[in-house]
Amino acid sequence: MIRVGNCVLLGSLVLCANLTAWAAGDASAQKITPTTAEALYTQLRSVGLDASRVYQIREAALDRSALHITFDSGTIAFTQDVYGRITGAFFEGEGEVLLTPPNHVERSSMALFTGMAILEEQFLTAYFRFNDDVYTELQPALRPAENAQEFVSEWDETARRLADTDALRLLISFSRLLPDDSNDPAAPAEPNHTDRMLHARIQGRALGNFDVLFDMEVQESLWAGQPRTVDGTTYYDLWTSFAPSTSKSPHNEVEQASDLVTIASYKIRADVKPPTDLNGDTRLRLSVRRGGSRVLMFELSRFLHVKRVDENGHPLAFINNQALQGTQLEKRGNDLVAVIFPAPLKTGQKLELHFVYGGEVLSEAGQGLLYVGARGTWYPNRGMAPADFDLEFHYPAGWTLVATGKSAPVTPAAVSATEAPGGQVSRWVSERPIPFAGFNLGKYAHAVARAGNVVVESYATAGFERTFPKPAQTEIVPVMPDVRHSIPAQAPVIAMTVAPTPSPARNAQPVADQSARAVDFFARRFGPYPYSSLQLTQLPGYLSQGWPGLVFLSSYSFLTPAERKDLHMDRLRALLSSQVPVHETAHQWWGDLIGWASYRDQWIMEALANYSALMMMETENPSEFRDLMEKFRRDLLQKNKDGQLLKNAGPVTLGARLSSSHFPDGYDAISYGRGTWLLHMLREMMRDAESTSHARAARLARPEDDPFVRSLRKLRERYEGKEITTHDFLNVLEEDLPPSLRYEGRQSLDWFLSGWINGTALPRFEVQSVKYLEKENSTLVSGTLLQKDAPQDLVTPVPIYGVIAGKTPVLLGRVFAEGRETTFHLSAPMGTRKIAVDPYQTLLTAPK
Questions:
Q1: Judging by beta carbons within 10 Å of its beta carbon (0-12, 13-18, 19+), is residue 512 exposed, middle or buried?
Q2: Max alpha carbon distance in the chain (Å)?
Q3: What are phi and psi of 592, to 5 degrees?
Q4: Are 710 and 686 in contact (CB under 8 A)?
């Protein structure tokens, strides 16, 4: 498990903490020992302070690895018992929190938000939740308080409001204490010695309210962050997140924790009733990998109400968002269902779970155009993990439905079960395990193209969504007769230009053709397309997503160049928009066939999809390729309202953390933009190492012989159907790393990982003191290479070219720039009297 922002990822399941507290019910049931999961959850989310446990506290501390919380002096009240356990406390007085990030990446992130590389903040109040024995740990420093009832009266309501945030997390811990209803005497809970959690919500003197959390069940078990609202939008700024075992090196990977269960297959029946409703019936086959838990969390849209859950025909208790009342549901909205088992799960146990649910997850965006608002959470799942899918859809006549998988025969029983007269049934079965399943529904026009044996289809409606911007109207100017001439007066003539109304359906064929070309282009380089068909469907809005065999394509992708111009898109934005179908097609290899292991590795898939699309552009229009690369470079130097450069949001390995209140667009600019440049640098370095005329000719004849492309094909063959880390990616490249790229003689790209992948610099390079010495058949060039605006430890292989008048520049070699100054000695053709540093702009440097 890992944590991203305010979210815990159980495997790859998102469990988000609530950023807003609200009032809960009264405490009348607090003294009752709960016997059901629902009663336990109710107590955990509304527990108040206990007037008999209010103390003066002085010179005490809580230590959790790199987290140190000190209570200098003040008053602390502990919460009422839940199952005989104290699970929280509220403190007022003088205290201090100290959290030391382990490496320069996390310290830089902390400094961006707090102005300090190390979190060292005095606090006035703090609310704590925990599942271990904090009460006993602090007891030596506790003395009875004289103002106990007054303190509880002042802070009890606040404590109850804040209790809800960690209720689901504590339910996982304390559900082990519930009565065992299995009637199995051999079913004791498997001990969990790592389940230890402490969450502090702190009111700091300088930083305001913020969170620090230690949770040993989470992969990155220490983090600190803060919700912040800017211009009406609330962000969760994650200041730092790391595992205590992480060394001072920023690129030491945390061992991936296995998920509690593995889901082998899904069998889903969905009744889709436009324009809003979906009713689902899902069966999951899964096996338990780590026993001992009584609770499994599943993602499911907050707008879907769970009616029942059973296991092999036996009803199971569950907690669904719909159990919350009115505005509480709107505030919480965390898309989770907790399923509680009658006894602890056992390692190796096989289960079949059955969910029945329904609600409004669709909306009508335009005539015949629906918005599927829960594309990833319309069925219960535990995140991205490959599984087999068998999907059956029932929907009305006149609509077209497409889904992930391959169209399969429908059983007669399924046809007879169709509710509406004239209703339709379709079935889609995955051709291989895929990480997620989806569908789209609309009144579409249909276009077909082919890439070898792969059928590529696009689906689009006649019109755009109602919110789609309208092209600027041509000004209508009356042309009056010229009264100076003695001709009969004529009626005014209206000069106007009438452009046809844009229609996605009219442009469906060009979209299919473009994607088919991309399938062919990528298959030649990265290996065969993973599925038998590709379907591209219109999606309202700006967002596009590539899923296995199914692409949700923004309405903007169905515009012609002239229609984009009518919307006054600038040239580069229009160029990017035109490449979206190719980018999403590339995700069929990068992101769908191969996934990412954690949020720190997601950049690889986005950058690979983006760069793959640009590689195709480079073969068709090299100047447009260069223009977009330059745009990505300059985007990194955009400034926010505080004058901070966007590049300083952090390195690509911070993933979703890059988008924050400081840099709302940080993720896109860095994961896509800088990430694309990192891949371009690697590709150009590897190509330069094979710079002989024979190698160049081979690449022109067979593009798949490009050394970088060869490595990507190897990556696909080795990891298809799996998730990779940044180290896995680099290890594949290192296997064929040429000697000229072996810094200090080592067959390793650690220098690239440390300085470039985990860095943010855009350096500048210059040469000085250059000398030319004629030899018998060559010229010896020597000088000093300067690396400016860069950290002292940045290592960069800089290409140096010899320039002779009237001839093409010749690559003399790459010089590893280390620190500010590096001397070099290179052999050049006779007559060389000038050199150029990276004239073809293969390095991510500051714009000239």
A1: buried
A2: 113
A3: -105, -55
A4: no
Cα 686 to Cα 527, 606, 668, 714, distances in angstroms? 20, 21, 26, 15
Structure tokens at 624: 């447009």
CA 543, 546, 548 angle in degrees (round to 5)? 150
Distances (CA, A) of 510 to 507, 575, 615: 6, 15, 20
Q: Indicate the SS3 state at residue 13.
A: strand
**CA distances, 35 to each of 40, 82, 694, 781 (Å):** 7, 11, 77, 82
pLDDT digits (tens, 9 = 90+) for 453-476: 999 999 999 999 998 887 755 444
Q: Report whether 548 contacts 434 (CB < 8 A).
A: yes
> Could you tell me if 399 and 391 are in contact, meaning their C-beta atoms sit under 8 angstroms apart?
no
According to the model, what pLDDT value does residue 246 have? 52
Q: Contact, 597 vs 256, CB < 8 A?
A: yes
Question: Which residue, 391, 479, 487, 467, is CA-closest to 431?
Answer: 391
**pLDDT of 702:** 67
315: β partners: 310
Q: Which two tokens stand for residue 248?
A: 């001072």
CB atoms within 10 A of CB 639: 10
Residues 742 and 748 sit within 8 Å (Cβ to Cβ): yes
Cβ atoms 463, 442 nearer than 8 A: no
Average pLDDT over residues 610-630: 97
Shortest CA distance to 289 belongs to which of 265, 261, 255?
A: 261
Strand arrangement of the beta sheet that strand 67-79 belongs to? 142-144, 49-64, 67-79, 88-99, 119-130, 197-204, 208-215, 222-230, 233-242
Residue pair 118/101 in contact by the 8 Å Cβ criterion: yes
pLDDT for 3 beyond 50: no
| The 3-state secondary structure of 257-281, one letter per residue | CCCCEEEEEEEEEEEEECCCEEEEE
Quote the tokens at residue 412: 């007669």
Residue 502: pLDDT above 90?
no
Calculate the CA dihedral of residues 201, 665, 733, 727 and round it to 10 degrees: 0
> Where do we find the tokens 């490959």?
386
Query: What is the pLDDT confidence band of residue 192, given thresholds at 50, 70 and 90?
Result: low
Confidence of residue 373 (pLDDT cuts 50, 70, 90): confident
Query: What is residue 645's DSSP assignment?
Result: B
Here the tokens at position 658 are: 């890059």
pLDDT band of residue 500 (cuts 50, 70, 90) is low
Confidence of residue 339 (pLDDT cuts 50, 70, 90): very high
CA distances from 488 to 477, 479, 481, 482, 484 (A): 21, 15, 9, 10, 11
Three-class secondary structure of residue 669 per DSSP: helix
Angle at 259 between CA 258 and CA 260, to 5 degrees: 120
3-state secondary structure at position 844: coil
Alpha-carbon span 281 to 279, nearest angstrom: 7
595: closest CA among 430, 729, 758, 403? 729
User: DSSP for 826-841?
Assistant: EEEETT--EEEESTT-
Closest CA to 357 of 304, 311, 319: 304
Say how far apart CA 437 and CA 387 lie, in whole Å. 9
pTM across the whole model: 0.89
Residues 6+ apart with CB under 8 A from 344: 176, 180, 187, 188, 189, 190, 291, 292, 293, 294
List all residues 6 or more positions away from 621 whose beta carbon is below 8 Å from its beta carbon.
none
Q: Distance between CA 549 and CA 404 in Å, rounded?
A: 6
Number of Cβ within a 10 Å radius of residue 382: 23
What confidence score (pLDDT) does residue 819 get? 92
Residues 6+ apart with CB under 8 A from 630: 847
Give the residue-averaged pLDDT of 562-568.
89
Would you give the distance in Å from CA 749 to the centre of its chain?
Answer: 25
C-alpha Rg value of the chain to the nearest Å: 31
